[in-house]
Amino acid sequence: MSVQRGVIAEIFGRLRKDSLGMTGLVIVVVILLASIFAPVLTPHDPLEVDVYNRLVSPSWQHWLGTDQLGRDVLSRVLFGGRIALKVALVAISVSMAVGLLLGMMAGFGPKWLDRLLVICFDTLRSFPTIMFALAIVALTGPSLNTVIGVIIITSIPVYGRIVRTQTQALRENDFILAERAMGASTARILRDHILPNIAAPLLILASMDVPAVVGMEAGLSFLGLGVTPPTPSWGNILSDGYSYLRNSPWPIIAGGIPLILVTLGFTFFGESLRDILDPKLRGKDGKG
Amino acid sequence: MDFKKNPGPAQINRRDFLRQSTLAGLAMAGGLPGVSWAVRGNQLHISNYNDLASLDPPYVISGADSTVGSALFQTLLRFKPNGTWDTEPDAAEYFEQLDDTHYDFRLKPEQVFSDGFGEMTAQDVKFSFERMIDPAMNAINAPDMGPLSHVEVHDRYSGTIVMHSPYAAFIPVAVAGYSGCIMSRKAVTSVGGRFSIRPPACSGPYLLRDWQAKRKTILVKNPLWKGPGASFEEIHVYAMSDAKAAEMAFEAGQLDCALISVESTGAFEKNMPPDSYLEIYPSSRNYWLGMNQSNRALQDIRVRQAIQYAVDVEAVIEAAWFGLAETSTGPIPKGMLGHRDNALIPPRGDAEKARSLLRDAGVELPLRLRLDVNNGSLELTAVQVIQWSLKKVGVELEIRTQDNSTFLSIGNEEAGDQWQDIQLFMQSFVGQADPYYSLVWFTSQQLGLWNWERFSNQEFDHLNDLAVATTVNAERERRYHRMQDIMEESGCYRFITNGVMPQIIRRNIEPVFSPDGYPMLRDFRPASRET
Amino acid sequence: MLQFIARRSLLALFILLLAVTLLFAMIHMMPGDPASAILGPKASPELKAELNQRMGLDQPLLTQLGRFYTDLARGDLGIDVFTNREVSEIVFEQLPYTLVLVLAAIGGATLLGIPLGCFSAIRRNSLLDRVTAVMSVGFIAIPTFVIALYLLLWLSVKWRWFPAMGAGASGDFVDQARHLVLPAIALGLGWVGYIARLVRASMLEVMEENHIRTARAFGLPERTIIVHYALRIAVLPTVAILGMGIGTMLSGALFAEIVFSRPGIGKLLHEAVMTRNYPVVMGSVVVTTGFFVLSTLVSDIINAALDPRLRETGRSS
Prior knowledge:
The complex is a heterotrimer.
Chain A: H1 2-17, H2 19-36, H3 38-41, H4 73-108, H5 111-125, H6 129-140, H7 144-171, H8 174-181, H9 186-222, H10 234-243, H11 250-277
Helix pairs in contact in A: 2-4, 2-11, 4-5, 4-7, 4-9, 4-11, 5-7, 6-7, 7-9, 9-10, 9-11, 10-11
Chain B: H1 37-40, E1 43-48, H2 63-72, E2 77-79, E3 87-89, E4 92-99, E5 102-107, E6 112-113, E7 118-119, H3 122-133, E8 148-153, E9 158-163, H4 170-175, H5 185-190, E10 206-212, E11 216-221, E12 234-239, H6 243-251, E13 257-259, H7 264-270, E14 276-282, E15 285-291, H8 301-310, H9 313-320, H10 351-361, E16 367-374, H11 377-392, E17 395-402, H12 404-407, H13 418-421, E18 424-430, H14 436-439, H15 458-469, H16 473-489, E19 493-497, E20 500-506, E21 509-510, E22 525-526
Parallel strand pairs in B: 1-12, 16-17, 16-18
Antiparallel strand pairs in B: 2-3, 4-5, 5-9, 6-7, 8-9, 10-11, 11-12, 13-20, 14-20, 15-18, 15-19, 21-22
Chain C: H1 2-29, H2 34-39, H3 45-55, H4 61-74, E1 79-80, E2 85-86, H5 87-122, H6 127-138, H7 144-158, H8 173-207, H9 210-217, H10 222-259, H11 265-274, H12 278-306, H13 310-313
Antiparallel strand pairs in C: 1-2
Helix pairs in contact in C: 1-12, 5-6, 5-8, 5-10, 5-12, 6-8, 7-8, 7-10, 8-10, 10-11, 10-12, 11-12
């Protein structure tokens, strides 16, 4: 649809003027590229053990030094990005999809369904996230899939609620009422009218959610509940670094940087996006 | 984390699963007001790698418990405070082995129990020994007493211990060990026959004044104690299962002696706190890579041998123990009767030989196997080195980490069917003062209990029975050597190391440690002013 | 208003009950019997039978659920099989440490954030304002444990300005305060910028309002206007946000406690998870969830008190 292309161009145009947002976008792109091309970029095999070169400081051979098994930290950090990426992609897309579905059902469907879903959402949101994650892992045992599952479960209510609110707001729209009077099916209305209007807030939410999801995976891996050794993840690079803190500070320094970058990058970008897409700030040429 | 109890039928043998975890732990590095050195002169502040779980001999399985308990109770004989397993009299003034199944003893007079429970008599010895094998007590440590039959009391101070059959480990494990602690019959009976942490009466050099759960235990000098040792007015034992907490507390001046983690030895050597020194004591903990030979993937002995040859033990020790520990040649550590000087397989392994064994066995590479391990950072580092070594010969290892409690049951038949699934695992345990205790866990009797490798060898079992029944050292030595050879030949074991116990000590005290690196609190004393 | 409070409280209680039921269900949904789950591999047939009987695990599920609720109402969270102590005793022993940490973090963040936001509003687009803007956006999302690790590395291990672990000697206030600094910073750093921005935004709104203009017209000094009128109003939304912040901070506190080896409910929970100590896991999660729900409730009530529109829908999002 040409309307969409025009919108994207406009968004990009606005973004260029917002230096913070641009910085965020650049960081995001760099991280994505680095993670995707990690196998090509890494100088060493992230799993290669070299015990007689443990915990060395940064050198030409090892730009970020080595960890307690002599593995190159830089390579591990790059590959850790792939785990972070995978988790973010899977967790966010699934919870967004499910949240979208449930949210639309709640917003558009009968009152009792709405009540039921809201109660489900609120119940899940009443747990402090990491505590809930720990409780589940205590029962099922640690694994990356468990981590992804927990993130999905705790994220669905967030997306669901937003979608619900938006759907409810739009539902009373004259245009929608007219369509319904003409006999359009619910599915069609949802798809053609509600969905496009929800897309923007959802994308913004997703973008702001990436840091949280990546942070959660890193946190759980830090606690030893995520990926299994020897797979590198930013979280377990940090936890190894923590164990050997007094021998070498480099694993911690190196492991923290990507997390900070991802957080700042996606947050700046998301905030910019919100400023751009938020109707209040759209200005005179508001397309409504 | 100490494994509290592995109950079941009374015949199940127990093991001492002492751990030095550097990550997890409920350390509370605090609670001590800033006190000046002068006041502290008569107090000893020391860390213990775990909080007390029980002090009653039938149920104690942790070295953290026996470290404290040994300061409170007496045994007929005790180990000399000189870093060897030699014994000297403690409560007994006379102890003699009459023949294979009879031991005579006579107590010193005027050894008094605290809290008004009176003088120690032979009846107390009888009570203490016999309650260990009393079926009603369900004592985890009953097997320590071996084939004990009963104790005969002749008069107030003397008696004879009678065995059903010869048991060479009796003196090191039962008499001088924690299981041989002498309790006051009157006191223990008055509290119902058993106690957990607060003993009803003690006759040793110290008394338990206070136990603050998960923080510390305070011992005070027993005013009724007349023997040697007991040089401090008070001993404060801090429960610090996190070695880092102990290290910090030591640096902050709160501790006089602390067990530190292996990885911190380097940092301490560079930055030694004032007036302190580092001493690396040997440990009798024994780490090895075990293989479940009943599992389909490991049934061919060539596969197991290939794995044995693939593991570079020196690299493992370099990574996980910072090169500070020695390679082990079997469950029997250096300094103990029966220790082998060399293992059959060289410490660095032989990758080429491993590859050719796998070729001979005709397995399809990469061979995928699973390895189960405890989730401590030491073990994880070690197994990742093993994983890498195996990768180089074509074996892809999947590492499965477990928490301590779960891990300790993976080979146990009673816990389910998972014992069939396990393939490789990294195991460890701490032995006792007698080699019998290092090897008994690998007998056929232990199948489904602690013999996770499903190793079963008739010659091994037979030698084990013979070795414990004779007291001729040369014979025992020969047999234990042969037994360890058999273990290695079976392909089920790759011995790694006995580990180390790095202690950091303040110069104002003179510590004493057992041969396996545990503090002998009774014998600690303030340093003499000569230097 | 009272009606709103009553309704929301009831709803909160209901949600809490559901959450707790979910926890209860989880332990029973696991493969194997609950007694094995609770006792772990230490379970011998005798111990299991004893536990089954003592906890009524062999009774129908609904009866168990009922007992669970009544026990909960009495404050009985079960027994820790490792140490034979009451779970509630263990949990409430550790809880104060976490609360102190969270309060310190919030206190610090507010003490810094409010003036910062105030100045940013007064001096718009100054350097300070722009730095605060960047901080507010970015910092709150950085994982607490990363900040904690960096603080530990630089300020404690490297420069030794602050202690690296523990809560400090009991009874020694100064020592405990010293031990509180780094963890509190780790927890609260993100919130400083966030609060500053909130205060700034609401101050800007308020400063344009009529009664402020009137005060200005009357010639009241700017300083008085700010402090007596604008700031007071601007601060209120912050208070409401903090209610919710406490909940998020509980998760962050867990990491701060682990990195700095502080006692607290986070450390307790982590330890319990690592040792599969289910009664303590469940007890800790129940208590923290309770706190979370309570703080959200309070924050909602405050929000509704400020903005009557919210009393209908209950929450703004």
